[in-house]
Design a protein that fits this description.
Blueprint (H helix, E strand, L loop, with lengths): L3 H32 L19 E7 L11 H14 L5 E7 L5 H21 L7 E3 L3 E2 L11 E6 L1
Length: 157
């Protein structure tokens, strides 16, 4: 009925499926073992790390090659200002972006100057210096919109 070649193929498929099931069960067992502490009790929420929530609350776009704040910058930064006034324990992280074309060092310096311009604007309206953190310049890779590389993001933590 079945030829010898068909039987060998069937055995190979059977072994492959069995192996996949065993590996899946092992992965599940490891995941469960990680959730259960070494003493055999389930770890509670306090034992698991809570990721910090990062949310972009302000984005300012700059002109090509410039670090001067655009006219609408304070309107774009208004949500960040409201947040720190409402929740003084919050922290604003300012990240300047640049593209990968041209001289990397000068692009990074321009992104840094843009981030400082946003920081200075926030300080001028009463945001505390301890509420602001400057991130290292970030390279914005590719994309359809070249303006994405000429921006500063303000995120809240």
């Amino acid at each position: 009925m079945f030829e010898e070649e068909d039987k060998e193929t069937g055995y190979a498929v059977f072994i492959a499926i069995t192996l996949a099931i065993v590996v899946s069960l092992a992965v599940i067992a490891i995941a469960i073992g990680s959730a259960i502490g070494p003493a055999g009790r389930t770890s509670g929420p306090a034992a698991m790390p809570v990721p910090s929530v990062v949310q972009v609350i302000g984005r300012v776009y700059f002109e090509l090659g410039k670090a001067e704040l655009p006219q609408d910058a304070m309107i774009l930064l208004r949500p960040a200002m409201r947040l720190v006034h409402a929740r003084p324990a919050s922290k604003l992280v300012i990240s300047g972006y640049h593209d990968a074309s041209g001289d990397v060092a000068s692009n990074a310096e321009l992104a840094k100057r843009r981030a400082f311009a946003v920081r200075d604007a926030l300080l001028a309206v009463g945001v505390g210096e301890k509420q602001i953190e400057l991130a290292r310049p970030i390279v914005a890779m590719g994309g359809d919109d070249p303006n994405e590389a000429r921006r500063v993001d303000v995120t809240a933590r």
